[in-house]
Amino acid sequence: DAKTTQPNSMESNEEEPVHLPCNHSTISGTDYIHWYRQLPSQGPEYVIHGLTSNVNNRMASLAIAEDRKSSTLILHRATLRDAAVYYCILRVRYGQNFVFGPGTRLSVLP
Amino acid sequence: NAGVTQTPKFQVLKTGQSMTLQCAQDMNHNSMYWYRQDPGMGLRLIYYSASEGTTDKGEVPNGYNVSRLNKREFSLRLESAAPSQTSVYFCASSEVLAGDTGELFFGEGSRLTVL
Questions:
Q1: Cα nearest neighbour of B57 on chain A
Q2: Whole-angstrom Cα distance, residue A63 to residue A56?
Q3: Where are the alpha helices (DSSP H) in B39-113?
Q4: B44 close contact with A: CB closer than 8 A
């Protein structure tokens, strides 16, 4: 499974946009880019995923570089509830193994 | 909507004891997973079941066994618990959709301490 690299931690102010980066230089053509987040004392929850094009949903936006070697999760207006560990994961199409790295711990300051 | 339900939520065992973690999902998903999460770490896959009747090893299967009892239920058994198995265990399910990979739905976790 291809590996991803994320910063250990990031900080943001409430109501400001947050850009969470992820590097995946060994990504293959069939790998989907998934983002999950884990709130304190909870299981991870799905945020967004994409293959080649940028994606938007009610939670966030996913910007994928043209060469697909990196991506950025964008939270448009951070709230205190967005404080969590964010995981960037590559998943092979129809693949069964999601490989979770340590993720990025996002702190949101009031 | 219950989603993925795990029992028990907390358990303390002595070294050498056995126990089974239960997981049930009500979303009619084909695939189910067991992960463990150690403090400050990401999740590591223990076993998964791509469909009813099949199970496969993940990254860290040693010391565990699984049973896919039916489409809804996937259990994880520790035959002889060791302190190294102290962790939070998460069950998850997903549906692999045509042309897409499907998202994972997680339970709330089971915190296991082995003394």
A1: A97
A2: 9
A3: none
A4: yes
What are the C-alpha distances in Å from B75 to residues A74, B34, B69, B103, B105?
A: 36, 9, 7, 21, 16
B95 or B33: which carries more pLDDT confidence? B33
The residues, any chain, with a CB within 8 Å of residue B60's CB and separated by 6 or more, are B36, B44, B45, B46
Q: 3-class DSSP state for residue B85?
A: helix
* pLDDT tens figures, A35-54: 999 998 899 999 999 999 99
Give the number of A-B residue pairs with CB atoms closer than 8 Å.
57
Three-state secondary structure of B16-46: CCCEEEEEEECCCCCEEEEEEECCCCCEEEE
Peptide bond into B8 cis (omega under 30): yes
Mean pLDDT of the region B49-62: 91
Measuring CA to CA, which residue among A88, A35, A85 is closest to residue B39? A85
pLDDT at residue A2 tops 80:
no
| CA nearest to B106 within chain A | A43
A96–B59 CB contact, under 8 Å: no
